[in-house]
Amino acid sequence: MPQMAPLPWVTLLIMTIIILFCLTSMIFFSIQEKKMKKTFEWKNMFFIKW
Q: What residue spans of the chain are helical by DSSP H?
């Protein structure tokens, strides 16, 4: 694994944020199917800003 994070808790925090983001996206897809396009646009903007 790439050792970009100097401390283990930093990697754990990043992984937790990614997992929570994925779970939130899955919940949005299952509950609000009509807003899938808006969710994809927001996700693309989020990754582009990173």
A: 8-31, 36-49
Cα dihedral 42, 47, 26, 7 sign:
negative
Q: What's at 47, amino acid-wise?
A: F
For the entire predicted model, the pTM comes to 0.44
Cα–Cα dist 5/44, whole Å: 24
Tell me 35's DSSP state. G
5: Cα within 13 Å, side-chain hemisphere: 10
List the chain pLDDT tens, one digit each, 50 residues. Answer: 566 657 788 889 999 999 999 899 888 877 776 655 666 776 676 766 65
